[in-house]
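Input record, target 12 of the design panel.
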């Protein structure tokens, strides 16, 4: 039987051990659309096949997010509750004290997170902020956690400072396709984002970059966003796929829902195109039932944000996540030196039950 164009495409990804030189970096939008158009079962099978070549299919990495500076942002990102341009009901907060950040990081570690991601509502960090954020990186690192920050655009020098302080990952999303970009953000360009990613990579940090779907974009935009991400060389180590959280007061608060299967397709296509990256089932899980999240894991998602709050939006309660992992037989990736992974999930479960009535995650608001 002759191979279809999608078979040829996915076989070129599947039938190799995808060393960096063999990873495909010349995706066209049309090729990505071919993947999106596959029958759902075929797409899921191909995604799961790629996933199993590079990862333990029953393991998920867990990160905890903390807003270290909330609201009053000068940018106009139409999805964001933290833009000063929209009337949303979040409480603005100045940059958190380093000790408070470390307290929250310690709690995240006790709950089993392996990475602590600190986010600030900035266009870019100012010179006066840098000493504090560098201390945060050093302190979190000393706790034995992986560190991640998302602070907006970075200059070459700022990226080098963060790298020298020990920052492992920098999160900076492309957010949407270049074609849809101006409908969503006008205060910085798509090229600005690529420049920041370049500065992060050149400084030696790992790149965390993804986007948001469900903002009213078309399938072609989702394909184009994934092509942009996969064509980065090297591909980002971490790819967050956010489902828009419709925040009251923002211009996108009333946009139509994205069909659930179209969201799962995004995860599956991202997995096929970026076989060695962690694909994060990121914002929007609170609006997904267990079955939908399980389908995302089957499609190749292998990372989540863990803890009842994202930056300003809610996230599933920790004990709900643990219960889902237990039902699915999913273990969490660990950086703790412990060979018995099942045991680690049990430890997480116990920690969650012990602490579920305490306010374990520092509330930045
Ligand atoms: N201010 C910095 C910046 O934008 O570069 C860092 C923080 S910003 C909140 C990080 C990312 O969170 C955004 O790029 C966007 O992809 C995601 N995000 C923000 N609000 C969201 C929402 N309502 N739903 C889904 N994702 C969202
Ligand atoms: C990412 O891609 N998603 C996270 C993280 N990177 C910083 C942020 C999600 C924000 C969801 C909306 C909110 O909490 O305000
Ligand atoms: Fe500001 Fe970041 Fe929100 Fe855009 S996404 S408004 S830059 S906090």
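The sequence produced for target 12 reads:
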């Amino acid at each position: 039987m002759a191979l279809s164009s999608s078979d040829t495409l996915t076989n070129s990804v599947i039938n190799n051990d995808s060393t960096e030189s063999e990873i495909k970096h010349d995706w066209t939008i049309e090729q990505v659309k071919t993947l999106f158009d596959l029958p759902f079962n075929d797409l899921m099978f191909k995604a799961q096949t790629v996933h199993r070549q590079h990862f333990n299919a029953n393991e998920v990495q867990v990160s905890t997010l903390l807003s270290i500076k909330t609201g009053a942002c000068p940018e106009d990102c139409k999805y964001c509750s933290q833009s000063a341009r929209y009337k949303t009901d979040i409480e603005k907060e100045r940059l958190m004290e380093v000790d408070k950040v470390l307290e929250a990081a310690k709690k995240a570690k006790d709950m089993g997170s392996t990475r602590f991601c600190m986010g600030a509502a900035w266009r870019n960090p100012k010179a006066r902020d840098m000493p504090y954020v560098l201390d945060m990186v050093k302190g979190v690192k000393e706790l034995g956690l992986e560190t991640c920050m998302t602070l907006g655009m970075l200059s070459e020098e700022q990226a080098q400072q963060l790298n020298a302080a020990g920052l492992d990952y920098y999160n900076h999303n492309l957010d949407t396709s270049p074609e849809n970009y101006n409908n969503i953000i006008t205060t910085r360009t798509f090229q600005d984002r690529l420049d920041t990613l370049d500065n992060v990579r050149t400084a030696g940090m790992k790149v965390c970059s993804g986007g948001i779907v469900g903002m009213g974009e078309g399938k072609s935009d989702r394909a184009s966003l994934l092509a942009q991400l996969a064509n980065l060389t090297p591909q980002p180590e971490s790819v967050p796929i956010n489902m828009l959280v419709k925040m009251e007061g923002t211009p996108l608060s009333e946009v139509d829902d994205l069909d659930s299967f179209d969201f799962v397709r995004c995860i599956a296509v991202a997995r096929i195109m970026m076989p060695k990256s962690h694909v994060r089932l990121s914002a929007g899980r609170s609006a997904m039932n267990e079955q939908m999240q399980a389908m995302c894991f089957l499609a190749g998602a292998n990372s989540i944000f863990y803890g009842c709050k994202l930056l300003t939006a809610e996230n599933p309660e920790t004990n709900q996540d643990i219960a889902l992992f237990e039902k699915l037989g999913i273990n969490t990736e660990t950086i703790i030196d412990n060979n018995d992974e099942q045991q680690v999930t049990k430890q997480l479960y116990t920690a969650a039950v012990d602490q579920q009535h305490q306010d374990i995650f520092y509330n930045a608001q």
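Residues 27-355 form a domain with the TIM Barrel fold (CATH 3.20.20.70).
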